[in-house]
């Protein structure tokens, strides 16, 4: 495995911007492609699709699945995908600098009182006495790519604890999980619907919460091409309307539990079509429920958290120092928090 130090830069992904952006579609039933990961945190997209909220907004949506954030950013820039929900990555920031993509809303955010992302260690590391994040000095930390959300979370924790981590890029979430379970890496951080079942297996142990270090972390964002954000405002508003209805349904069922156990069961059935599809429903349900985190109502965006992420990318030398927040985000579509 290749070892990455904190200051090694990612590729700029500049070639992706050479490809034309998405072409306009028909006014009604416009065909668009929505990028997603098979995570519970993408439930807003799944609910919007399954309950025809996108259709009601005049959009004919095709879901396209990815295994990491940065390839999704490239797909937005190339026009293969119109909208996506995932973590901000160094690649996304670099593409924003080139005028290819814009963040237009919030997806998932850490929130006090609601279980969030976890720091995990391998069983070997745990048996060696590592029972808290601050004890990981000099240990290996898994990530998909340099500049990924995993890199950000690990680095921010390490800075707060005054320790050094050895980051190992493994490209795909599945590869990181395999490396952690086998002890090839010492630690990782991930959403609870993945963290808790791994910990339950005994091969991995939870040693801390990401929210301890990043209490208002804007974990995922909604983004699109700059062309869609500037030239396709009606389509973009329609997309956000359909997505936000899906988010509202998810929060009502899983956070507020407005429909009681029956409402939770119905939502689990829907999400299971996309998450843990290789497991029977009864095996998948606990993990889906464990993954419950509040999604941003109305795609509200925590600008202060996005600013912190941008400043971290810059401090690590992962993106150019002169990129401004305005280059990365378009705040005209949704409510914002922070500054």
TrEMBL record:
Pfam families (UniProt xref): NMT1
Claim: Hydrolase is one of the keywords in the record: no
Cell compartment(s), UniProt: Periplasm
Alphabetical list of Gene3D superfamilies matching this protein: Periplasmic binding protein-like II
Keywords: Signal
A biological-process GO annotation: alkanesulfonate transmembrane transport
Domain SsuA/THI5-like: residue ranges: 40-249
Signal peptide region: 1-27
Keyword Endoplasmic reticulum appears in the UniProt entry: no
Major localisation: periplasm
One Gene Ontology cellular component annotation held by this UniProt entry: periplasmic space
Protein family according to the UniProt entry: Belongs to the bacterial solute-binding protein SsuA/TauA family.
Protein name: ABC transporter substrate-binding protein
């Amino acid at each position: 495995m290749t070892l990455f130090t904190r200051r090694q830069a990612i590729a700029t992904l500049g070639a992706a911007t050479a490809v034309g952006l998405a072409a306009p579609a028909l006014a009604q039933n416009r065909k668009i492609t929505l990028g997603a990961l098979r995570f519970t945190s993408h439930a807003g997209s799944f609910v919007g699709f399954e309950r025809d909220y996108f259709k009601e907004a005049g959009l004919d949506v095709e879901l396209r699945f990815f295994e990491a954030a940065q390839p999704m950013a490239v797909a937005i820039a190339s026009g293969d995908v119109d909208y996506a929900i995932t973590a901000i990555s160094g690649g996304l920031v670099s593409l924003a600098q080139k005028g290819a993509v814009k963040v237009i809303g919030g997806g998932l955010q850490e929130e006090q009182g609601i279980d969030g992302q976890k720091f995990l260690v391998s069983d070997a590391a745990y048996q060696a006495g590592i029972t808290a994040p601050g004890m990981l000095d000099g240990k290996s930390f898994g990530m998909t790519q340099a500049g990924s959300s995993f890199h950000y979370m690990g680095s921010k924790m390490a800075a707060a604890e005054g320790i050094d981590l050895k980051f190992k890029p493994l490209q795909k979430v599945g590869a990181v999980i395999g490396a952690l379970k086998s002890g090839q890496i010492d630690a990782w951080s991930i959403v609870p619907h993945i963290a808790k079942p791994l910990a339950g297996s005994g091969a991995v142990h939870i040693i801390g919460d990401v929210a301890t270090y990043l209490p208002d972390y804007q974990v995922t964002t909604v983004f699109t091409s700059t062309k869609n954000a500037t030239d396709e405002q009606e389509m973009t508003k329609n997309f956000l309307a359909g997505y936000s209805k899906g988010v509202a349904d998810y929060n009502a069922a899983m956070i507020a539990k407005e429909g009681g156990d029956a409402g939770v069961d119905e939502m689990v059935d829907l999400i299971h079509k996309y998450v843990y599809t290789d497991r029977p429903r009864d095996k998948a349900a606990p993990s889906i429920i464990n993954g419950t985190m509040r999604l941003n109502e109305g795609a509200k965006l925590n600008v202060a958290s996005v600013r912190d992420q941008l400043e971290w990318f810059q401090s690590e030398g992962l993106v150019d120092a002169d990129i401004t927040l305005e280059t990365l985000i378009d705040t005209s579509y949704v409510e914002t928090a922070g500054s």
